[in-house]
Amino acid sequence: MSDLYLDAYSGISGDMMLGALLDLGVPREHLVAELERLALPGWRLEQERVEQHGVTGTRANVHLDDGPQPHRHLSDIRAIIHSSSLSSCIQEDALGVFELLAHAEARVHGAGVEEVHFHEVGAVDAIIDIVGACVGLAYLGVSQFDCSPLPLGTGFVRAAHGTLPLPAPATLEILAGSGATLLPGQGEGEMVTPTGAALVAHFGRFEDSVVLRPTRIGYGFGTRVLPWPNALRAILTEEAAQPTLETDAVTLLECNVDDMSAEVFPYV
Asked: What does the pLDDT read at residue 265?
């Protein structure tokens, strides 16, 4: 098992997570081979080398064939994942992420979970981002990761339901029960997407203090241009040795003898 720490100083999205995992050394060929088990047509995954402000890393680009994307329900996503030949652990994690998204959308729209239409996150590229992140984490042997506080941007975003305030309502719903530490007003625009929030809520841990012994660092770049490197920094670590104390055991045997003289048993 490996340990992973996410430094989300620029936020997190599905493609940034996928890029960071590629930059940590998850082979693109492995990701593609595993993702093809979903039997989803019309996509390809490209790995692009990016440099911003002197920092280099990887941007994951999922390209789709032309044509409209269907609006899928949670049941459709379940069918796609369950009918795949992905390992049961990857299937379980991917479905866990989608269920967080579905429950958040249901609360926001006042609908039943099975009634929710996935719009952006039901598209093939979002499915590839989420399942690809689960595949990449499994490749690295990571079942959970620690995460820094999450910066929340300000402003508005265009979505399938119209113009929404940032952070998006679904994003806040997902993070509300995750234990995440949030930093409001850290920048303009969307910094944490619903997909990124769901990945963090499913896999993430939020500790007050984390001791790191880094072994490898990866940068997953987003598409926005910021005054700093717009990347998710993923730090692969080894477990820091915990201080140990040497102990010894001493047994004390006591008794009371009240019917004999001490001269009879002087060495007892």
From this structure: 60
- pTM value is 0.86
> Following CA atoms 140, 146, 148, 151 in sequence, which dihedral angle do they give, to the nearest 10 degrees?
80
- What residue numbers bound the domain in which 202 lies? 3-237
Q: How far is CA 131 from CA 23, 57, 64, 77, 97, in A?
A: 17, 21, 16, 11, 9
- Considering its fold, how many domains does the chain have in total? 1
Express each pLDDT in 162-183 by its tens digit.
899 999 999 999 999 899 999 9
Q: Is residue 91 part of a domain?
A: yes
Look at the alpha carbons of 94, 95, 97, 101 in this order and tell me if their dihedral is positive or negative: positive
